[in-house]
């Protein structure tokens, strides 16, 4: 891999400020063509324990620093990420598959969390409370929660780390990160830049490894860890929540979704199609807020489908480093097999295959952008998160009914509403049981606003003032006079 700054390519774990080999290594491959990118440390549960020890030792000194001091170090980290964004994007595309322009976007989005939380930590205030008793004085102070452990997924190998580590470090916590096995290089590159920025040894540790369950047990059960934060599937999230129960850890969970995308007959069709494309095909559909169920009003159904089909047919698919590519491969063959199975199930249950429907010959992890119509709510393609480039369209006629259908899922992450009628838009946005609702746009995620889900889509919020609050304990102080 050719990089302007070859120092960013690390194959060992970053623990206690040093690079450490593990007993074994694991292969990291380009999902577009299977090429070996390198062999990276295959860390163990014991390595995770060493990292927790380092984070525990580093905590008192880091916590003691003023917010301004922590902010200055974090801003250096931010600056270095921006300066190295070209290399970081290249590493990300090679190990994850998304087009280079998307990877570049993720790096800057990821960096924005570091800048923003560095600023925000200087404004975390306690309160004085009007007393209930003249002989007492009441106040609150806010203190960092302690050692934070993070498990992150492969779909956003950079930003899911910074979204957790930045507020934690800004608050005065120390962190141990286990990235997904498929995308360790982006995580280790962040570790290198944190090192260069001068984050003290042990404040940030990265443990890569294929034994997710073993490392995960340490990160969710070690009594020295105060908070666990996770992005991944609902099934794994539930398991990890149960593991956290043994030591009553604070938890943040960003889990799966089943996003409805509702197009009313008063929507602007070009806006709706553009938004749908953005939510559906970014990262080949492997996004937790990706549209999963498209509900289109009967009166505009054919027009919407025709425009969507034209846009989908124009997508350029290939290796993410090639110029002009809009969509790369999926992460691994298992993901391809799964979406293929869901498409076949839908067609067997009566859906119409408009375009796509099969893997592509580009490489074993490519799946064609696929448009299905005549989908119904009971099909697996509608009840399960497809996490792939599949647009599954259903029809509706009645507002109340479509809200009911949109809400009839155990998930509650993101929802989309397309309507030019401000009263309707307000009504529907309020009625949707989701943590985030985007109206007349498909792109909404930002560091300044709270990201997170209702129901089985998660606990807590990342980003915004809410994201900062997740890493503090509020201490109530009562003084007798
Ligand atoms: P995805 O569908 O995004 O792969 P997963 O929930 O399987 O979602 O993976 C998200 C993260 O959780 C990855 O870092 C993965 O290694 C980790 N993971 C998967 N299974 C476990 C487990 N049993 N214990 C701890 N971590 C796990």
From TrEMBL:
SUPFAM superfamilies: ALDH-like. InterPro entries: Ald_DH/histidinol_DH (IPR016161), Ald_DH_C (IPR016163), Ald_DH_CS_CYS (IPR016160), Ald_DH_CS_GLU (IPR029510), Ald_DH_N (IPR016162), Aldehyde_DH_dom (IPR015590), Aldehyde_DH_Superfamily (IPR050740), Succ_semiAld_DH (IPR010102). Residues 20-476 form the Aldehyde dehydrogenase domain. It comes from the Bacteria. Keywords: Oxidoreductase. The keyword Oxidoreductase applies. The keyword Oxidoreductase applies. The active site is at residue 254. It holds the Pfam family Aldedh. PANTHER family: SUCCINATE-SEMIALDEHYDE DEHYDROGENASE, MITOCHONDRIAL. Belongs to the aldehyde dehydrogenase family. This is NAD-dependent succinate-semialdehyde dehydrogenase. The lineage of its organism: Bacteria, Pseudomonadati, Pseudomonadota, Gammaproteobacteria, Cellvibrionales.
